[in-house]
């Protein structure tokens, strides 16, 4: 019997594959793709769900009936090819890590480039999963707050990575310990650290976490990591993507920790690079579609909105980034694009290709493209964008800046290697 050798995006996420709508189908896809990329140490963790998924996949997509034994043999010998752009090469693994709140894989790109092997990923957003799968050949597991997801996390990995969302904690009148974080996503991160005891963790969050709830939220987080979980956690640091080779002013808080028995009691975050970059370094080389250029009506609305705020002494409103300038932080929502408009005088055909009010503006003002946003976040041009623009902007806006993550991760791994050499 000839078996399919490739796992195409349309087969996994297209209309033919109805399992996407069911929780067991989502788990099956994740387990199957994790199985194909796991080593012998972790394969048994994913095997049963992988085989079950393969049987259902074959019957739904191809109309073939497979016995459990045949499906098990097919999965066991990994007959599906992995042609993902950033699929991990065999061998040369320096450390193992897990990718929580994975988004589109910014942490994974950074860690893999340092010799890391991802042994588990999770992400709840279905569109982000498409992008993750297209680039890494792996479907992340879903909701990490559910025990049925956590049961697939292997033992023995060295580093936990998580760009977890910030939520308020109810700590009034209490000490702000582990139990006080229940009901927040940080609690699930902390619980996994407590269960699996990785050698290190690397957490990322918005800059505002430092002052959230007058500093009490961060204090609670640090208390849990240091006192309850027993990790050495140096003072968190605000890191700017601009300092690590991308022309974007994006500040985020990084929190690093090491298991106390390692004897690591000192850590220095990486110093900014001595490298000047500007938007022109990431600007599209070829002329872009007219769809990215603003309509006269939209531009008029933006100008009126900005003028109203200026009259009140506020600095809100759209912004045009010059070619020799630095972009504002790319974030979700309209303002993420409106505060990162650019000039581009290369458009020759002003015929609209979308339904817009008014004509295309003749001032050469356009939005940045998703590829430009990808470059601002440090993603290589080989990184595939298989989703519509609206989803792409959201995904890159939510992502970590890869170069800043990589620079910090290198310091973490160097510390772990020093510890390993001491043993």
Automatic annotation (TrEMBL):
CDD domains xref list: Cyt_C5_DNA_methylase
Gene3D superfamilies xref list: 3.90.120.30, Vaccinia Virus protein VP39 (3.40.50.150)
Enzyme active site: 166
Bilayer-crossing regions: none
Reactions catalysed: a 2'-deoxycytidine in DNA + S-adenosyl-L-methionine = a 5-methyl-2'-deoxycytidine in DNA + S-adenosyl-L-homocysteine + H(+)
EC number: 2.1.1.37
UniProt keyword Transferase present: yes
Uppermost EC category: transferase
GO terms (BP aspect): DNA restriction-modification system; methylation
Entry keyword set: Methyltransferase, Restriction system, S-adenosyl-L-methionine, Transferase
GO terms for MF: DNA (cytosine-5-)-methyltransferase activity
NCBIfam families: dcm
Family to which this protein belongs: Belongs to the class I-like SAM-binding methyltransferase superfamily. C5-methyltransferase family.
Protein name (Swiss-Prot/TrEMBL): Cytosine-specific methyltransferase
Organism: Mongoliibacter ruber
Lineage: Bacteria, Pseudomonadati, Bacteroidota, Cytophagia, Cytophagales
